[in-house]
From TrEMBL:
Stored Gene3D superfamilies: Hypothetical protein af1432
Pfam families attached to this UniProt entry: HDOD
PROSITE patterns attached to this UniProt entry: HDOD
Protein name as annotated: HDOD domain-containing protein
Organism of derivation: Thermanaerothrix solaris
HDOD domain mapped to chain residues: 18-211
Length: 286
C-alpha cells in the first residue's frame, strides 16, 4: 500500500474552484443565532427577489410543511415557517448553484448531488425535530453540506488525473483514503471550519458516516447519518458508492428513533425534493 500523496493542508490549498459561502449565507446563519431578528424585515427583503419569493411560497405550501390553509404571500409564508426555516431555505438557494453540477467521479449526473443534499437536509431536520427548532435547523444545515467534500475531490481529480484516468474504476472509499489520505466527509468538515460555520456543524459533516465518533456533534451527525442512509435506500443520489453505505444503528438510539422513521420521512422529503427540482429548473432558465 502506498502512502497518500496529499495531506489535508495540501488538499485544502489546492481547492481553488470552490468559493466560500457568500456574505448573504453567512448573514443568514448569523440571523439564525440572533433571537432579535425581525421576521417582517426578512419578508420585505425576500419579497423583492422573485426567485426567492417563489421558493419560499412553494415550499411553505408543500406537503413537507403541510399548511392547513393555502399561503398566498411571502409575509404569510415567513410568519408560518418561522425565522429558522426561512433562513435554511435561503441557505439552500445559495448553495444550489454550487451543488447543481455533474460529479462524474461519483457517477452522479447534474442535479443528483443537489437532490441528495436537499433530501438529506430535510430528512435530518425531521430526525431532529423533536429535539427543538434550533437543533432541527442545525441538522438541516449539516445535511445540506455533508457531501461538499465530494465537489472538492472532483476539482482535484480534474486537475491531477490520478492513476492516468483509471480512478473511475476504483472504489471511492479506497481512492479517498489511500490516494488523498482523507475521505470526503473529513474534507467537508474541514471546509466547513474554514468557512467559519459554527460548531458542531463541522463535526457533524466530518462524522456523518461514523456518527459515534462525532463527540459533541453526535446528535447532528446521527441525524445526518440516518437521513443520508435513507436517501441511499430511496435511490436518491446513489452514485457509485451508495451500495457501500453502512448504517450505524446507534444513530437511531441517539435520536430516540427506530427504522419506522423511514416510512414517515419518505413522503415528506419527496415533496421537498420536488420543490427543490422546480427551483433549480427556474435557476437554470434564469
Amino acid at each position: 500500500m502506498t502512502s497518500p500523496r496529499f495531506n489535508l493542508e495540501v488538499l485544502l490549498r489546492r481547492i481553488g474552484d470552490l468559493p466560500p459561502l457568500s456574505q448573504a449565507v453567512n448573514k443568514a446563519l448569523e440571523l439564525i443565532r440572533n433571537p432579535k431578528s425581525n421576521l417582517a424585515e426578512v419578508a420585505n427583503v425576500l419579497a423583492l427577489d422573485q426567485s426567492m419569493a417563489s421558493l419560499i411560497l412553494r415550499w411553505a405550501n408543500s406537503a413537507y410543511y403541510s399548511p392547513i390553509q393555502p399561503i398566498k404571500t411571502v409575509h404569510q409564508a415567513v410568519a408560518y415557517l418561522g425565522q429558522n426555516a426561512v433562513q435554511s431555505l435561503i441557505l439552500t438557494a445559495s448553495v444550489a448553484a454550487l451543488m447543481d453540477r455533474p460529479v462524474p467521479g461519483y457517477r452522479l449526473d447534474r442535479g443528483e448531488l443537489w437532490k441528495h443534499a436537499v433530501g438529506v437536509a430535510g430528512g435530518a431536520r425531521l430526525a431532529a425535530q423533536h429535539l427543538g427548532p434550533q437543533v432541527a435547523e442545525e441538522a438541516y444545515h449539516a445535511g445540506l453540506l455533508c457531501d461538499i467534500g465530494k465537489l472538492a475531490f472532483e476539482v482535484l481529480l480534474r486537475t491531477l488525473d490520478p492513476f492516468e484516468g483509471s480512478w473511475q474504476q476504483i472504489p471511492f472509499d479506497y481512492l479517498e483514503r489511500h490516494y488523498f489520505g482523507v475521505d470526503h466527509a473529513t474534507l467537508g468538515g474541514e471546509l466547513a471550519r474554514r468557512w467559519n460555520l459554527p460548531s458542531p456543524l463541522p463535526e457533524a459533516i466530518a462524522f456523518h458516516h461514523r456518527p459515534s465518533l462525532a463527540g459533541d456533534g453526535i446528535v447532528l451527525a446521527a441525524a445526518v447519518h440516518v437521513a443520508d442512509a435513507a436517501m441511499m435506500m430511496f435511490g436518491i443520489g446513489l452514485g457509485r458508492d451508495g451500495l457501500q453505505y453502512q448504517l450505524d444503528l446507534r444513530a437511531f438510539q441517539v435520536l430516540g428513533l427506530d427504522e419506522g422513521f423511514f416510512d414517515y420521512m419518505l413522503p415528506r422529503v419527496s415533496a421537498l425534493i420536488e420543490e427543490a427540482e422546480h427551483y433549480i429548473g427556474l435557476m437554470r432558465r434564469g
